Amino acid sequence: xxxxxxxxxxxxxxxxxxxxxxxxxxxxxxxxxxxxxxxxxxxxxxxxxxxxxxxxxxxxxxxxxxxxxxxxxxxxxxxxxxxxxxxxxxxxxxxxxxxxxxxxxxxxxxxxxxxxxxxxxxxxxxxxxxxxxxxxxxxxxxxxxxxxxxxxxxxxxxxxxxxxxxxxxxxxxxxxxxxxxxxxxxxxxxxxxxxxxxxxxxxxxxxxxxxxxxxxxxxxxxxxxxxxxxxxxxxxxxxxxxxxxxxxxxxxxxxxxxxxxxxxxxxxxxxxxxxxxxxxxxxxxxxxxxxxxxxxxxxxxxxxxxxxxxxxxxxxxxxxxxxxxxxxxxxxxxxxxxxxxxxxxxxxxxxxxxxxxxxxxxxxxxxxxxxxxxxxxxxxxxxxxxxxxxxxxxxxxxxxxxxxxxxxxxxxxxxxxxxxxx
Length: 422
Fold this sequence. Notes:
By secondary structure, the chain is α+β, with helices and mostly antiparallel strands. The protein contains 15 helices and 7 strands. It has a 5-stranded mixed beta sheet with strand order 2-4-5-7-6, with helices on one face.
């Protein structure tokens, strides 16, 4: 059985800082999107300001001066927005989102015990643009997409992600290594329990009927109940709110809509449902792909929606529900719906469907899962390469789940993902 690794006080402080910063930064994307939608809401501005201020203060204490400089520059702009010195317009929010991405990237490199900065020229340019924005001038656009946060292996002790708890609930940060040690010990208890059962079965009839055997059976039943409670408790500890899967989605919708010259928003319900960490990790990329597709393929332009009698802004809805050990994620849009005719023509062209072949309605919609099949008229940063939906389905099937599609021309498309969630 693996033994936990013990760290120095400085390593523990740094690991806790990295975990706390990761947790704080994870929720910023959706807060920035909310601030863009309601710029005068000081509660949202303050909710963004607080974690960045905390990172600035703690990074200075730890000697992480590049991280401190970036957090300070971003904090200064947020402070000016709080004081209404200038508005929280799209250009400034783009710059703050880029800064948040860079903060995440730096935290990721610190987690991997790498230098804070990879490209010093790019980093300095970002700081300069933040200074210009602080002065009240319009910030210059980013020269290139901001780097994605580096995930990397966790420093030890890597704390478990925080779960939403009821008011008054006592919580503590627990190293994942410690949980793994406890889990392995519990598995060994199950083996001991099975061995006790075999000993009782191997005992002769005379021994089995003795008073001592009756006492042993009683103790064994109690032992069995205790092991079951420990295993149930560990199962809960290993779960996190499914909301963690959706933290980046508001920004994905915002950025994808901007790149496609469309307007879109997202509504999410059911985020408090608990799921295994494996689901959160493995469903991240498939969910992002589905949401991007809903905006890029599903949503019409504002002009097209207005002509169709719809509001200019497309609504993406994500609903999560659970029942009897099963979780369902429904991703729907009120867009144009799938172009089934175009899908069929493309499938005929590639030879996937033969001329005259009879297809049921569900067969038609499932054509989108064929590898290499895309109806996009041109290749963009978002779509057109014919990859993705087959990978989405494969990822879901690896988790023991399934994905179903329902669509209606002019009204939208709904993807329903069903996953085991014991």
